[in-house]
Amino acid sequence: MRNTTAMTATILLLAACGGSSPDAPVVAAPPDSQLTDPAMEAAAATFAGAAFAPTGGPPALPNLVPTQNDSGFAATFSMTGVIDRTGPFFQSLGVNGRSCSSCHIQGEGWSITPGGVQARFERTKGTDPIFRTVDGSNSPVADVSTVEARRSAYSMLLNKGLIRVGIGIPDGAEFELVAVDDPYGFASAKELSLFRRPLPSANIKYLSTVMWDGRETFKDPSSLDCTFGTTACFASLHFSLDSQSSSATRDHAQATQPLTAEQRKAIIDFQTGLFTAQVFDRNAGHLTVQDARGGPVALSNETFYFGINDTLAGDYRSRAPFTPTVMTAYDAWANAQPDPGFSDPKVGARVAAARRAVQRGQALFNSKPIQIRGVSGLNDDLNIETIPGTCTTCHNSPNIGHHSVPLPINIGVSDAARRTPDMPLYTLRNKTSGETMQTTDPGRALMTGKWNDIGRFKGPILRALAGRAPYFHNGMAKDLAEAVDFYDTRFEIGFTADEKADLVAFLRTL
Question: How far is CA 359 from the centre of its chain?
């Protein structure tokens, strides 16, 4: 008890310091190498054992403790002052040893990554609680009797960080399943196997839709959060998260008893108080210098409400028209000059150029023209063949990057043409027209039963991206460059090589 008290006191003292300062020395040696921050390196190493583990370690972690990723460092800021690891979020509340944190790791962007999952597999020979056949294996009846059998059974989790979600075609659906090509021999109309990435459990204070398919976002006719000009009104985020915490514990942790009201509240309070973002970039350095507004503290102060800067109706509260200038954190870097903190002028010049590239990428995100065609949920619902837009047409929440009202759309991620051999393929037939469609995941349609909803998903929040590859609901883009390539090809945007590099540089800093 004495040791725990002493450790807690030490952590609280560290938290009060606020983590590594933007004015801390940044080192790059030799001059053409990537940047580093010795203080951040040391802090990240000190706390990595806990930050990259589901449970265990100290009872709390300091606010803003850095966690290393391929692009630099991310950090998490909690409104409570520390990352408390003693609550029900980190407790096993079912029968299979899992906790919420089994699939939501601080050091992995509060999601999971293939590298992190693989490390757990090697450390435990595939017996860590994340490796459970209920949803971790490619099939719930997979052979997991040996280490090699487990390596095969959990290949989607190991290779892409994908959880298997089992959902059947709803009664009364406008479509039926007429063919299944499941490489794992399990899926049927009763339970399709849908492989999806766990969404981050931080920054959720800003959510407009809970879950990729919106299944934990509920209608409420008494709510004031209504899509403009319609009677589609939605329950509060707290109500949705209350349901989601119960469903996740029941389905993923296989709980036999429902969560108590106190447990649900503790989980919700913990998650809605968490904000995570990149704080240091290997090329641009600290993301709060020279008046930049990167990092989780600035993120925690962003304004968000239902319908802010809505693309179709304008801002629901101010009634200002939609503005595509959504991302502004790096405006100050438009004319970034060498930082006098660098003793080597060549390094200073290189870092200044990297900061200008980040700002150019931000400007591209806001303003690069995109001719939006063939997007179910937009073009068909609006009956407009071509919608002139930008990235922010769909990612319209200021400095957060998702849609500010529920808007499930189909941009083609689950189309048969993009199917990889490890994914099941489903052939669906419209009961009225006889039309058929092939998809690896029907998405929202499995909630509504509507033909037009096939392949529709929400767009996620675009913060702390660098630490949680791969991207899209099915992990089809291994890195941010592949994600940008997808959009460039899908919408025939015509990015130049330099524009792609700038856009990736910007996305890495979020």
Answer: 22
- CB–CB of 22/288 below 8 Å? yes
- Bridge partners of 456, per DSSP, are 443
Token reading at 57: 């370690």
Buried residues in 99-114 as b, exposed as e (16+ CB within 10 A): bbbbbbbbbbbbbbbb
Q: Judge residue 98's burial from the number of C-beta atoms within 10 Å of its C-beta, 0-12 exposed, 13-18 middle, 19 or more buried.
A: buried
For residue 4, name the pLDDT band (cuts at 50, 70, 90): very low
Tokens of 342: 């660098």
Q: Residue 385: which region, alpha, beta or left (left: phi > 0; alpha: psi -120 to 50)?
A: alpha
b/e code 234-269 from CB counts within 10 Å (16+ = b): bbebebbbbbbbbebbbebbbbeeebeeebbbbbbb
- CB of 150 closer than 8 Å to CB of 134: no
Q: Could you say which DSSP state residue 360 is in?
A: H
- Mean pLDDT over each residue of the chain, to the nearest integer: 94
Q: In 3D, which of 469, 473, 401, 393 has the Cα closest to residue 441? A: 473
Return the DSSP state at 165: E
Residue 164 bridge partners (DSSP): 195
Share of the chain above pLDDT 90, in %: 92
**DSSP label at 197?**
P
Q: Which of 147, 156, 1 is nearest to 475 (CA)?
A: 156
Collapse the DSSP code of 167 into the 3-class scheme (helix H, G, I; strand E, B; otherwise coil) and give the result: strand
Alpha-carbon torsion angle 252, 253, 256, 258, nearest 10: -80
Is the distance from CB of 361 to CB of 333 less than 8 angstroms?
A: no
* pTM of the entire predicted model: 0.94
